[in-house]
Design brief:
- The chain is an alpha/beta fold and 399 residues long.
- It contains 13 helices and 19 strands.
- The strands form five sheets. An eight-stranded mixed sheet has the order 12-11-8-13-16-17-18-19, sandwiched between helices.
- Helix 9 packs across helix 13 and helix 10 runs parallel beside helix 11.
- The relative contact order is 0.10.
- Bound molecules: ligand PMT.
Length: 399
């Protein structure tokens, strides 16, 4: 699973300014993009494969004949929300304009329906050559965005038009094409998902019905908006989200210890996991026999949000969830408001889980309770949509 609008392919062709795309890659990552780099063979003379792999944190394929079984030119064409080629040489412009496909990058371009942004960089004579101008207008007619190069000093003593443009120009074209929301770029958000399990013996546990769908939807939505997301997943069996760091835990005690280490580093915590309120006092190393199974001593689990409230610093935002079994909306609000206050939360989403509703479902229904008492009634909507509404509230609290 990839965050929507955040998966980008960076093609690099063989010009001296290829080194500037190392900084471009870093800045794209700061904005929450997951970037696959596809360098042409000529560009490897300027910046090597190892540099791209180290910077992107992803495997880099440089030719059509690697990983043939996974058909990378088709999968990369389909997976990426945008193709950006920086720098683009005069030769590559000519190839793209004539629809050639003789290497990995040109095959991907030809196979992709994603928006394409081209960043030409070359000597002024080459840029102003009528052949290059004709290729640029063919590409523009076909919907490619071709960014005008900057004016200035070239390699050697030449001065003129053809320089790799300022990165801000590239970013505004990306924003215009993807129309994606980057309002959480640069923010670190922790999301807890799923339900904790408290082992009784090697085969049994105390648990709950949480599937993790709500927490995963929140993590995906936050990553889509550019956040650096750390998902703490309690026993959820759901596909990983590319670009989202995951820590898997089983029990409430494990969740508390991960949060004690991670919470001080984040801007916001969204606690959608269903946490078991108690664990067995004496875990049995061996399976308990049927006849020995009459009563169980329980020990209360720590209240994790109460502990978080003790270490919370000003500026950090904490969002809680509450699962209640009262169908009256006014009672939900009352119960939610009490929990919001007792746990020192900034926001709380209360959902009515009578008869196991909402657990495992793709939709939800409830009330968002705000510490400023501006509550929002949520009719039945998808967990994805709720995630975006909650994140809108979170963004306005983060300021
Ligand atoms: O995972 P899904 O199938 O998509 O279902 C979603 C959901 C129903 C699990 C989700 O919407 C939800 O309601 N999650 C919170 C459930 C819950 O634990 O509610 P609670 O009322 O018991 O706890 C209130 C808050 O305190 C929660 O944020 C909880 O994470 C936290 N808590 C609870 C117990 C505890 N010992 N420490 C805590 O911090």
């Amino acid at each position: 699973m990839f965050p929507r609008g955040r998966k980008l392919l960076l093609g690099v062709s063989g010009g001296i300014s290829a080194y500037k795309s190392c900084e471009l890659l870093r800045r794209l990552q700061d904005q929450g993009f997951i970037v696959d780099v596809v360098p042409t063979a000529a560009s490897l003379n300027f910046v090597g494969k190892a540099t791209w792999e180290a910077l992107s944190g992803r495997k880099v394929i440089t030719d059509l004949w690697s990983d043939v079984e996974s058909v990378p030119h088709i999968s990369m064409a389909k997976e990426n929300d945008l193709i950006l080629i920086a720098p683009t040489t005069a030769d590559l412009l000519a190839k793209l304009a004539s629809g050639r496909a003789d290497d990995l990058l040109t095959n991907i371009v030809l196979a992709s329906n994603a928006p394409k942004i081209i960043v030409p960089a070359m000597h002024p004579e080459m840029w102003l050559n009528p052949a290059t101008s004709a290729n640029v207008s063919i590409l523009r007619d076909r919907g490619f965005v071709v960014i005008e190069p900057d004016q200035g000093r070239m390699t050697g003593l030449d001065v003129g038009v053809g320089r790799y443009p300022d990165l801000s120009k590239i970013f505004s074209e990306i924003q215009a094409k993807l129309q994606n929301n980057s309002d959480l770029a640069g923010r670190r958000i922790i999301v807890t998902a799923g339900g904790t399990r408290e082992p009784i013996d090697p085969v049994r546990y105390i648990g709950n019905r949480s599937s993790g769908k709500q927490g995963f939807a929140l993590a995906l939505a936050a990553a889509t908006r550019g956040a650096n997301v750390h998902l703490i997943s309690a026993n959820a069996d759901l596909p990983e989200i590319d670009g989202v760091e995951v820590t898997k835990i089983e029990t409430a005690t494990e969740l508390l210890s991960v949060l004690e280490a991670e919470f001080p580093k984040c801007d916001a915590l969204i606690m959608s996991a269903a946490v078991a309120d108690a664990r067995v006092s004496n875990y049995s190393q061996n399976k308990i026999k049927k006849n020995d199974f009459e009563t169980m001593d329980l020990t209360k689990n720590p209240d994790i949000l109460a502990r978080i409230a003790e270490i919370k610093k000003s500026g950090q935002i904490v969002v809680g969830f509450a699962a209640e079994t009262d169908s009256k909306s006014e009672n939900l609000v009352k119960l939610g408001t009490e929990k919001l206050r007792s746990k020192s939360l900034d926001l709380m989403y209360v959902n009515n889980v009578t008869d196991g509703a909402i657990f495992g479902s793709d939709s939800t229904q409830g009330v968002i309770i705000d510490s400023n008492e501006k509550n929002i009634d949520i009719p039945e909507i998808s967990k994805d949509t709720l995630s975006d509404i909650l994140l809108d509230q979170l963004v306005s609290k983060l300021g």
